[in-house]
Write a structure and sequence with these properties.
Helix content is 36%, strand content 18%. The protein contains 20 helices and 21 strands. The strands form five sheets. A six-stranded mixed sheet has the order 8-13-12-11-9-10, sandwiched between helices. The chain starts with a strand and ends in an 8-residue tail after the last strand.
């Protein structure tokens, strides 16, 4: 019996070579629409699917392969006599190879089309044929990826297609269709937490190793919502590794927390600030520089210029920045590039780079230079647990309230530092404490199992940063920001001894009264925001 192949592809790469081989080997090729015209236009004989089904294509092409003459030919098991008898009785023939790829829903869902237009790119017949063929993989070769054409041709030439190869091709079908269906579900669902969590991810690259050298790893990116990472362009340097990507993600999110003017994004919590009536006291600096090491900031600052912001970022921890990542939320210029060129860094990331800045940075052979075209866009965050996935909203609400709980009111000049501190501390590992001066971190502490240790560490580091002279007046910082409440009065005691005059924290401890009383004792202003910012 003559072998038959059904070919219907949107992506035409390599299809002429495959079809030409099959035709030359005596296979009958069934096809539809644009693929049929493409093959015939290249002198490859084709039988239209309508000749097999005896039913015309209809509904603007929505129905053409959804027919028993197609699916019986795909699903009939050759080793089951009753199946073959049924085909004979119905005058149907087997289909022995299916080569199908799908309407480009992944691409179209990102194109900003209307709902009606986007829905038309949901492929129905293609996934259905693929699934039928894949279920019957022992008898049907099923191809979705041009990369598999050459191995298929070689196997057919040798008259030896291994069952394991067919099984792998079938697995690729369900890998593709599950991602395809997940993208459609994400597009159509209007539920924040649906019954089943749809993820549609495609491998962007295999990584040299994971968090440590003995761990394998790969990077997957969304097919339908590319986010900031999917829109980044690497301009120079070595390939990114697992830890690089994690740090890069945090650094860019932290920089963009203060707004990304060119992308029209406002700082995190700007609506909260306006609603609470404190917007007229907020500092106007929006140029941000962030240094990240081991997935937590080791410096973060705002400035009237990027150079000012960078110098304050560097001053916060001039040791830990080595081997780290530096991110900017504005175009990076030559003055800052010159300073960065004096350090060993893994990555520099910015929305753009001056030509002179690129020339300076590219002198570092291995330095990864990343151009970030988009602000972070993902609504949810994910944490893998053994056997499941934790899903939560991203932390984008800064304040629930702005409640002064002490006798002393914060001075107007301190409020920009308090707001800066609360924005920045959300990116530091809990328990997180930030000491702030001139809208810059002078000391950062976090990742400890109690709150007094990072308080002591950040205050100690702050003394050195200010003493090094990167801050204009040389006076000690006045503001401390905390990601969560104080369980005891010890944080206030330590802050008072270091000259802190204003504290911003969520509040909510059963011992809030102890901290308030301690602040009143030392004349410190304290504001409760009502919003905790744990980052584990």
């Amino acid at each position: 019996m003559k072998k038959r192949a059904l070919i219907s592809v949107f992506n035409k790469d390599g299809i002429l070579e495959l079809a030409s081989f099959l035709s030359g080997a005596g296979w009958e090729i069934l096809s539809t629409g644009g693929t049929s015209k493409h093959l015939q236009g290249n002198s490859i004989p084709v039988t239209d699917v309508t000749e097999v089904t005896g039913f015309p294509e209809c509904l603007d092409g929505r129905v053409k392969t959804l027919h028993p003459a197609v699916h019986a030919g795909l699903l009939a098991r050759r080793d089951v006599p009753s199946h073959m008898e049924t085909l004979k009785k119905l005058n149907l023939s087997t289909i022995d190879l299916v080569c199908v790829n799908l309407y480009p829903f992944f691409e179209k869902v990102q194109a900003g089309l209307s709902l009606e237009e986007t829905v038309e790119f949901i492929d129905i017949g293609g996934p259905t044929m693929l699934r039928s063929a894949a279920k019957n993989y022992r008898d049907v070769i099923v191809l979705t990826d041009p990369v598999d054409y050459a191995e298929t041709i070689a196997g057919l030439k040798a008259n030896s297609i291994a069952v394991e190869f067919k099984k792998r091709l079938a697995g690729k079908v369900f890998d593709l269709t599950s991602a395809y269906d997940a993208a459609i579900a994400r597009y159509l669902l209007d539920e924040e937490y649906p019954e089943y969590w749809p993820l549609s991810l495609k491998k962007a690259q295999s990584l040299r190793y994971g968090e440590n050298g003995h761990q394998s790893a790969a990077l997957y990116v969304n097919t339908d919502k590319p986010g900031a990472l999917g829109n980044m362009e690497q301009l120079h340097g070595k390939e990114l590794g697992y830890n690089n990507i994690r740090d890069l993600d945090l650094a860019w999110k932290a920089a963009c927390a203060f707004g990304l003017a060119d992308a029209g994004t406002a700082p995190i919590g700007e609506d909260d600030i306006t609603a609470l009536g404190i917007s007229n006291t907020v500092g106007k600096k929006q140029i941000c520089c962030v240094a990240v090491k081991h997935n937590t900031p080791c410096g973060i600052a705002l400035g009237d210029t990027l150079l000012e912001a960078y110098e304050k970022t560097f001053a916060c921890d001039p040791v830990s920045i080595f081997g780290g990542i530096v991110a900017s939320n504005v175009k990076l210029d030559a003055a800052v590039a010159k300073q960065l060129g004096e350090l060993f860094l893994e990555i520099v990331i910015a929305p753009d780079f001056d030509d002179d800045a690129l020339e300076i940075l590219k002198k570092k052979k291995n330095l990864r230079i990343m151009k970030a075209k988009k602000a972070p866009r993902e609504v949810h965050e994910y944490t893998a647990v053994d056997g499941g996935l934790l899903v939560q909203q991203g932390d984008r609400k800064l304040f629930e309230k702005w409640e002064v709980v002490t006798k002393t009111q914060p001075e107007a000049a301190d409020i920009p530092d308090m707001i800066f501190g609360m924005r920045a501390v959300t990116f530091v590992k809990s328990n997180a404490i930030l000491i702030v001066k001139d809208e810059a971190a002078t000391g950062i502490g976090g990742g400890q199992v109690n709150r007094i240790w990072p308080t002591e560490q950040s205050l100690e580091r702050s003394k050195k940063a200010v003493a090094d002279g990167k801050f204009a007046d040389g006076k000690p910082p006045r503001v401390l920001a905390s990601d969560a409440f104080f369980p005891f009065a010890d944080v206030v005691e330590a802050a008072a001894a270091a000259g802190i005059r204003a504290i911003v924290q969520p509040g909510g401890s059963v011992n809030d009264k102890l901290s308030i009383e301690a602040c009143d004792k030392y004349g410190i202003a304290m504001v409760f925001t009502g919003t905790r910012h744990f980052k584990h």
